Amino acid sequence: MQIFYTPTRTNEAVVEKLKLIPVLQAHEFKRLEYADWRRRVQIESIKGDAAFIWGDGNQHHESFHFTDPVRSIKLKINVDMHSDMGSKNDTNLACWNHMGATENAGIKIITTPYKHGTRQAILDAKFTGIQYEKGEIALTIDLDGVCGMPAYCPQWISAFTPPVEEVIKLIKTLGNRITRMDIGGLFEDLDYFSIVELPKGYIPSVDELNGVISGIYVGNDEITVSPDAIQKIWNRVGTYVTYAIADLLDEFARAIGEGK
Asked: What is the DSSP string of 162-183?
């Protein structure tokens, strides 16, 4: 499977570690250009089933360039904290209106119906998606809509979003109906962390995630802890992010017949 990625600092760090995960070693990771316009040309020329890891939430509109050229796609699903529908007065493609642009292009869409409505979008996607055929669905995942992820803005982090396992179940349910899957929305400066062993059932807390984004960790008592403690938090969050994305990619590879 081809896995394309935008070279943000976080993506470079995560992809470096994804390449070492056994179930992903048979796949081809392809680094895209840093310049936006050059990257757009690359994205629009991608052929066949593929995955794409874009940058922070401001780059979610690149999902449109990734899926719009694929003529077989009849349904696009947005797993996200936001609907990204924009308004009818929008004239330029942006992160907040790319799903509206997809709908305007004649593709049926399923997106978050209200803020924090990610679970409802997943339920709608399961019910509707099974009515489609092989290669007719695109799935875009903004990780601000998934629990435990260091999103682009602290105010987008919530403990009420569904865990990554619910998104994996969606992919499993829809199987090879999905031909394109893209993922993004992470804070762009999670660039230095080590893979560590995580406690069973661990999901980063809102406090931990806000600490990663702000560069310091502030707990309930507003006590800033030591640099070593901060690094341990970064390691846990980075490890969680890496394994979550690995699981999403692996399930998609299995869906299209390229997984182990």
From this structure: PPHHHHHHHHHHHGGGEEEEEE
